[in-house]
Amino acid sequence: MFSKILIANRGEIAVRVIQACQEMGIKTVAVFSEADRQALHVIRADEAVFIGAAPATESYLNMDRILAAARQSGAEAIHPGYGFLSENADFAQACADAGITFIGPSPESIRLMGNKIAAKSTMERAGVPVVPGYYGTDQSIEKFVAEADKIGYPVMVKAAAGGGGKGMRIVHDPAELADAVDGAKREALNAFGDDAIFLEKYIVNPRHIEFQIIADQHGNTFHLFERECSIQRRHQKVLEETPSTALTPEKRAEMGQIAIQAANAVNYYNAGTVEFVYGEDGSYYFLEMNTRLQVEHCVTEQTTRIDLVYLQILVADGQPLPFQQEQVIQRGHAIEVRIYAEDAENNFLPSTGVLHLFIPPEGIHIRNDIGIRAGMEVTPYYDPMMAKLTVYGMTREICIERLKWALDHYIISGVKHNIPFLRAVVDHPAFHSGETTTDFIARHFENWQAKPPELTDEVLITAVIGELYRDTSVVHSGDVSEEGDVYSPWKAF
Questions:
Q1: Looking at 65, 252, 292, 402, which residue is catalytic?
Q2: What is the pairing mode between strands 27-33 and 4-7?
Q3: What is the C-alpha to C-alpha distance for residues 62 and 51, in angstroms, rounded to an integer?
Q4: CATH 3.30.470.20 in the chain, residue ranges
Q5: CATH number of the domain at 207-444, please?
Q6: Gap between the Cα atoms of 411 and 223, Å rounded
Q7: Which residue in 100, 219, 374, 408 has a CA-CA distance of 20 to 30 Å to 437?
Q8: In this structure, what are the phi and psi dihedrals at residue 226, rounded to the nearest 5 degrees?
């Protein structure tokens, strides 16, 4: 087993990996940028290495500096977390070339699944259902017009090399296709350096259902059931839960086996996620495969009691998985929401500033994955996600009530956050009834505005502390200088 692992990431996922390593008796190395000198992952790790300026391109995306940090610290393996370099085949290959184990799949699997066109073609050959579409190399508008007519409208124009909603357009009318293709190509080129696109049939009122898979290097591939991630804003997930309200036990078992089939088609090992678009009629189609740990892995861990990061490290060390498929049992229900520093009433713009208070709720079935602490500054350099809140209950109804309580008892001061919006989502009757298609937010929350908060003790305390900080003229790294603090007991002296 590894004696030391470097975590090539930041925030809550870096803290999560550090915790798993330390529980396994493995020393950890954090890397940090100029903006993250006092970050939580730096404090939690056994040692930390500075890797550059705040912009990610000069630090967390700089392969040479991360590999140099691994060599300097004597780390034998690198865990990439998610985002940044986690799905970069060149980085996985560079780790192998340097004699450092990449805790993830092979560079070949990452490269194949990273190209949406190649991935769809591979899945089709393997007998995995794929959405009807055009994935060819002829990128002329004439070809797209002809293929769209064959597929039938509405169609989706999608970037071949990326995700996250970039380079994506929904086209309902043939007259709109040319403009959609041009716009998608420009956006794809800017975001991914590749303007290749493809067409897919747009599934009306779909759900987004994904299956967690884990595979070792000894030929064992298992699924750990599904996650429903249909509640999305601009193709970014907002709330995830398991099990899905849409699947029967028979459909769940069928899709789980298809997910295993998809992973085996690319000789996959380590943790990964096979994503499907699920239609109203129960039909489902391969969407993509994420060759890394997912943000929403927590709900799978809560309902299976399996530590996915532990398994990732085990597999990377060349060990076989310590169970069989029939031993993976799903119990109860879990829901995760992402806590963002953003202004939900102002087009969800990121919010920055010093975090004066950050007190997450606590409870026996409440899990907090946190990447920030009071006194830290939320900067504009990285994703504004501060934490993830995951709750568990024996039934979905219990889980929803527990989530409401937890959201009501989250205390944050210093930046705007999305908790009021999340509370509105879980209050909505359509969510309670399980009607969670991918247009949920667009349909029910297009012009959402928060209701005035109830004046609970927590709200009043937060307001008072916020007033104290606002009336302080000097704030540095969360510490208030005596000279600038009008409430300092030493002020009169």
A1: 292
A2: parallel
A3: 8
A4: 207-444
A5: 3.30.470.20
A6: 36
A7: 408
A8: -105, 165
443 assigned to active site: no
400 phi/psi in degrees, rounded to 5: -65, -45
- pLDDT by residue for the chain (493 residues), tens only, comes to 999 999 999 999 999 999 999 999 999 999 999 999 999 999 999 999 999 999 999 999 999 999 999 999 999 999 999 999 999 999 999 999 999 999 999 999 999 999 888 898 899 999 999 988 998 889 999 999 999 999 999 999 999 886 667 789 999 999 999 999 999 999 989 888 899 999 999 988 899 999 999 999 999 999 999 999 999 988 889 999 999 999 999 999 999 999 999 999 999 999 999 999 999 889 999 999 999 999 999 999 999 999 999 999 999 999 999 999 999 999 999 999 999 999 988 889 999 999 999 999 999 999 999 999 999 999 999 999 999 999 999 999 999 999 999 999 999 999 999 999 999 999 999 999 999 999 999 999 988 887 766 656 665 676 666 666 555 543 433 444 434 444 444 434 3
* First and final C-alpha spacing in the chain: 59
Q: Which CATH number fits domain 132-201: 2.102.10.10, 3.30.1490.20, 3.90.550.10, 2.40.30.60?
A: 3.30.1490.20
Q: For 4-103, CATH number?
A: 3.40.50.20
